[in-house]
Amino acid sequence: MGWKIIPCSETAYLLFAFTQNKPYMMFTSLQDILDQKAIYKQLLQRVEALESKLQHTHEPETSSTDDLTRIKGIGKVTAARLQKEGFVRFDQIAALSEDEIPQLEEKLGLFPGKIKREKWIEQARSLSKA
Fold it and tell me: For residues 29 and 12, what is the distance between their CA atoms, to the nearest angstrom?
């Protein structure tokens, strides 16, 4: 979001908040601007807290971890990247949905289709049952 403050007089200001280059909000006093800025900061903190929680949705429910390098196609570097994304067990990889796979490949810096091509999901299912 971009901001543009336009002074109209010594005591009046116009503040435009732009989203995708379209005006979103307009304020006519400096106090309104300061109030909105405080609200915006609070909302931003809430969003950051929620993002932090979402990043950990794939964290293990217990403290156990699996050796992800046992999956053919996952080396030490990729295993470390998976751990950084919260994947530490075979059952987490086995539970990946079709929608999550391309997103994970992008986050890990993998070629598109690598997870399916190397059958990580199937391997993870087999290893999680063992």
Answer: 5
Number of domains composing the chain: 2
Q: Helix (H, G, I), strand (E, B), or coil: what is residue 43?
A: helix
Going across the sheet that includes 2-7, the strands are 2-7, 12-19, 22-29
In 3-state terms, what secondary structure has residue 112? coil
pTM of the model: 0.53
Note whether residue 40 is domain-resident: yes
Which CATH number is 115's domain given?
A: 1.10.150
Per-residue pLDDT tens for 4-47? 555 555 555 555 555 555 555 555 566 776 777 777 788 778 87
Residue 114 domain flag: yes
The stretch 96-116 carries a mean pLDDT of 94
Distance CA 96, CA 48 (A): 24
Residue 61 belongs to a domain: no
